[in-house]
Amino acid sequence: MATALQARCVFLGAPGAGKGTQAKKVADGAALAHISTGDMLRQEVAAGTALGRQARTFMDAGKLVPDDVIIGMVRARIQQPDAKTAWILDGFPRTLPQAEALDRSLTGATALTHVIYFAVPEAALVGRLSGRRTCSKCGAIWHVEHKPTRRAGICDACGGELAQRSDDRPEAIGKRLEVYRSQTAPLLAYYRDRRVLREVDADRSPEIVYQELLKLMQ
Fold it and tell me: pTM of the predicted model, to two decimals?
């Protein structure tokens, strides 16, 4: 097990870059809270809450959920006991206004320590997204080519049924990447100016990327 890290970190990159997979692994191995806005929103959608119904119209179209909804949710999550000193934000911020709002919320001992950019060529991203499948029961992520299950459509971990997320379908992938280029990519310059940006070549094996992340977050 990795040594516990006292890092308050954003994982930044295009859809399919591996942020969620690595965030879970680093959080488990280094005693950090994994805060995934995507997972939080999907839980709301599955539960049929008012927030979930509001968010679903945007998610199904591959668009970003409005800032006020996400910012309020993240602020509340960071205040919970397991996230007081060390955490990874996965999927937030995605726009400059979100980044600025996050900075206003985090000062002094709670300020960001690292922003890790996951660099992956766009062609590789399309292949990753279109083949990704998620277990409807336990949330495990598989891939039809790179990480197939023993039985097609059935999760190896729990036996649950696999499904393709609506925003991983071909009609949504192009829109998601377009939104990333126009709204999220400018954050690279924002965080570079603040001297917290680090870059990892994420177009490599997950284990190599994981080991490099642990070094970058020291």
Answer: 0.82
